[in-house]
Amino acid sequence: MAARTQIKICGINSTGSLEAAIAAQASHAGFNFFPPSPRFAGPDLAAQLSQQAAGRIVRVGVFVDADDAFLAETLAAAPLDALQFHGAESPERVAQAKAQFGLPVWKVLSVSAHEDLPRAQNYAGAADFLLLDAKTPKGTLPGGMGLSFDWNLLNGWQSPLPWGLAGGLSPSNVAEAVRRTQTPLVDTASGVESAPGVKDADLIAAFCQAARAA
């Protein structure tokens, strides 16, 4: 029997949506610490969400080219179980942050073509986990825009690290994504929202159910 697909609900920014993710048996909750994002969680909210989630769901903090001072300040307010880097962080930066903060580090790899995938090898030995996401247009936010990439690009691809799939996943397509890519983890943000940054408990439940049914 195949291992149960792990599920990350990303960009959680309310206590209600966190409870909805936990109730739907998602494995991971993503908290967004990138201020321009509509899903941004400030220090007070992040502290509340971290405490609420502790021991109930894996807490992943999403950062974009954050420096050590910002990471330290965030972790002091809101303890996390993993750091997710969604910017232009180099393998060296990933390894340094992992050593500095003693937490697993996820690196997002933006994908739009075959030539994007070999970059994954650069992070072997630096990151703990790779998250493949759709490449967003220049000048826009780095994720959470509901865009997908061509899953056929993953045919025959062997990841050098544990990995997961993001980018445009919703209750209507997540089962197909799991079947076609055999991804161990699926990640969604906008796919379970009624408006940018506003999670919908029914969509969260439907997404988790569909992912597990694949």
Brief overview:
29% of the residues lie in helices and 21% in strands. With 214 residues, it is of the alpha/beta class. The longest helix is centred in the C-terminal third of the chain and has 13 residues, at 201-213.
Could you describe the 3D structure shown?
The chain is an alpha/beta fold. Helix content is 29%, strand content 21%. It contains six helices and ten strands. The chain has helices at 15-23, 43-53, 68-77, 91-101, 174-181, 201-213; strands at residues 6-9, 28-32, 58-63, 82-85, 105-111, 129-134, 163-165, 185-188, 193-195, 198-199. The strands form two sheets. Strands 7-6-5-4-3-2-1-8 form an eight-stranded parallel β-sheet, covered by helices on one side. Helix 1 (15-23) packs parallel to helix 2 and helix 1 runs parallel beside helix 6 (201-213). The longest helix has 13 residues, at 201-213. The protein starts with 5 loop residues before the first strand and ends with a helix. The mean pLDDT is 94.
Shape descriptor reads globular
Compute the CA-based radius of gyration: 16 Å
Total DSSP helices: 6
- The H-and-E topology, N to C, reads as EHEHEHEHEEEHEEEH
Low-confidence stretches: none
User: Would you tell me the structural class of the helices and strands?
Assistant: alpha/beta
Distance between the termini: 12 Å
Determine the oligomeric state from the structure: single chain
Tell me how many strands there are. Answer: 10
Would you tell me the overall average pLDDT?
94
**Percent helix among the residues?**
25-40%
